[in-house]
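Hey, I'm writing a tutorial for new members on how sequence and structure tokens pair up, and I'd like a real worked example in the thread rather than a made-up one. If someone can provide the structure for the chain below, I'll link this post from the tutorial.
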Amino acid sequence: MTGAPFHAVGGAILADHGPLSLKEARALAVFYAREAVGEGGARAGFCMTRSLTLARAAYDAERWRRAAGWTDPDLAD
């Protein structure tokens, strides 16, 4: 695997294991960030890359949902 497998597509967040809700994506991004702080070396970089990529996907999905008219993007799940 050459990159973190999280993407926002049309307001949805997709991972290598299937779709994630916006709430799940945010929680997982926080988890990976906390893991990065507790790790060292390559593991820290791996966790931080996953955290940042997932946070970006959540941000992009939220923006797409707001543009589609959702006042609360979490309700689109």
